[in-house]
Amino acid sequence: MFGLFGKKKLGKSEEEKRAEAMPRTKKVQFEPMKLSEAQAALEDDIRAILSFTPVNYYATKNSYLLCTFFYEEDYSEIYMQLEYRVDDLGRGKSGMYTIDKILMRDILRKFGVNINI
Prior knowledge:
The chain is an alpha+beta fold. It has helices spanning 14-20, 35-44, 101-109; strands at 24-30, 63-71, 78-86, 89-93, 97-99. The chain contains three helices and five strands, in the order H-E-H-E-E-E-E-H. The longest helix has 10 residues, at 35-44.
């Protein structure tokens, strides 16, 4: 009976556990958009993320699309996850996407960050 009113937290997938165990992370922010729209675009073509507009976190803290990379130090394995955030609180997360180091390099270049691959 007491379980009726509580929210049930679903366990993390094996992919999420693997990604969160990675030694390195990097976070960047994009202009706010519906998470469902972002996921649909990425399902069609993962490189669609290159069309998302980068944003400076300090300029628009009220809402943004957070992109978190989880990766090995040699970039041999990279996971990416999107999260819609409003007033620094999460409002939904996408699934994990496996990307390659070329795509990660191209995304980070939009933010003025160069990585040696």
